Amino acid sequence: MHYNGYEAVVEFDEEAEIFHGEVINLRDVITFQGRSVGELKEALAESVEDYLTFCKERGEEPEKPFSGQFVVRAEPRLHRALSTAARRAGMSLNKFVTTVLERSLAN
C-alpha cells in the first residue's frame, strides 16, 4: 500500500480477524489497522497524516522513505574497475552504477 510517498506492508491476523500494517523503510514507526481494504486505506492515510502533524508540532522534519542517496563501500580494486568501465561507457560513475543495479533488478 502507498500513501503520500510512504509504503506499507499489510498482514492478516487470523486470530483477531483484522488486517494490520506498518510503513516500511523508516526508523520511525507508523502502524495502522482495519477490517477491509477501505478501512486500511483510510487508516494508513490517517496514520501518515498524524505522523506528519506530530513532526510539525515538535519542529522536526518528518523522515522521508528514501532520499535517493546511499553510500556504498567497495574495495579499491572494484572502485577502480567501475570507474574505468563508467568512463568507457561515457557515463558518470553514479549513472553507471545505477544502470547496473537497475539491470540486476530486472533479471
UniProtKB/TrEMBL annotation:
UniProt-listed GO biological process terms: regulation of DNA-templated transcription
Pfam hit, one: HicB
Domain of life of the source: Bacteria
UniProt name for this protein: HicB protein
Organism, scientific name: Lutibaculum baratangense AMV1
